[in-house]
Amino acid sequence: MTMNWGILGASKFALGHMARAIHAAEGSRLAAVASRSIEKVAVFQAFAPDCRAIAGYDDLLADPNIDAVYIPLPHTLHAEWTIKALQAGKHVLTEKPIAMQAADFDAMIAARDQAGLLAAEAYMIVHHPQWHRVKNLIADGAIGDVHRVHTVFTYDNSDDPKNIRNQTDGGGGLRDIGVYTLGCARYALGAEFSDITAQIRLEDGYDTYCAATAQIANAQFSMYTSTRMHLHQEATFHGTNGLIRLTAPFNPRIFGEARIELHQPNHGLRVERFAQADQYVAQVQAFAASALTDAPYPWTLEDARGTQETIDQIFACATPV
């Protein structure tokens, strides 16, 4: 059975990543893109010739031939259109952050439950085999008791003032990339944060730097995000009997090769590489399989809400820097 997908908006990210992933994924078909500029859909049709151009978002949601919708709209529109898609009878995969605050999840979860459909945040890293491997290594005790976790995600978009991430309404680095530095630890350890402290630097009302510390399970946690620093990302889990380091934990194949460094006593350094894995294609395939067969999905709305609750707490407790 094939899942027919529609995309709300001809965004640059949709064109560069998710539309191509939908087209490439087994059991999925890119059927339509809705855009006010029909000309923008032509670039999607260049690799997916059967993709139809639809002028309006509501028109796409009303199309009976669309089974699932992918939403890459500006952050502040995510929750609203997720609910609209569910009410229109569509499964829906929405870019992160799927909501601007944790309270937004109540209406989304209610709409999901009422529709009996799959709705999820497009948190692609949980579909990547490197993160499956890390989660299993930790659970199996490969590095003993984890005492320290550190995550980083930075880039510099200061030369792009019109970018949505550089706008007061819906902008900032913490909501954009903090979902990775925070969510990955929650996923790998299967635990929630407590005792949070944070520092935030604001620029015109949105955050360009955030550093936070917390407790998670039995580990001390630290992280920082920035949209004004040299491009970098990594994640480290340090335990009593070893250390795991991911060198490209969030967008491998763009930042660098997906690689796990496993440091253990008496074994030295072992490196595992995942050069061929495409987390976007894997995400689409997992979503379609779950929607069509009721198979468990690895990142539920409840999982996404847990990260947003942490982000809300960081904003509430942060001091300026």
The coarse overall form would be globular
Fraction of helical residues: 25-40%
* Count of separate structural domains: 2
SSE order: EHEHEHEHEHEHEHEEEEEEEHHE
Beginning-to-end CA distance, first to last residue? 53 Å
CATH class of the largest domain: Alpha Beta
Strand content bin: 25-35%
Work out the radius of gyration: 20 Å
The largest pleated sheet is described as: 9 strands, mixed
Strand order of the largest sheet: 14-13-12-11-7-10-9-8-15
CATH topology of the largest domain: Dihydrodipicolinate Reductase, domain 2
Secondary-structure-based class equals alpha/beta
CATH architecture of the largest domain, by name, is 2-Layer Sandwich
Helix tally?
A: 9
Number of strands: 15
Q: Give start-end ranges of low-pLDDT stretches.
A: none
Describe this structure in words.
- It is built from 9 helices and 15 strands.
- The chain is an alpha/beta fold.
- The protein folds into 2 domains: 3-122, NAD(P)-binding Rossmann-like Domain (Rossmann fold, 3-Layer(aba) Sandwich), CATH 3.40.50; 125-280 and 307-320, 2-Layer Sandwich (Dihydrodipicolinate Reductase, domain 2), CATH 3.30.360.
- Helix 2 links the parallel strand 2 and strand 3.
- The protein starts with a strand and ends with a strand.
- The model has no long low-confidence stretch (mean pLDDT 97).
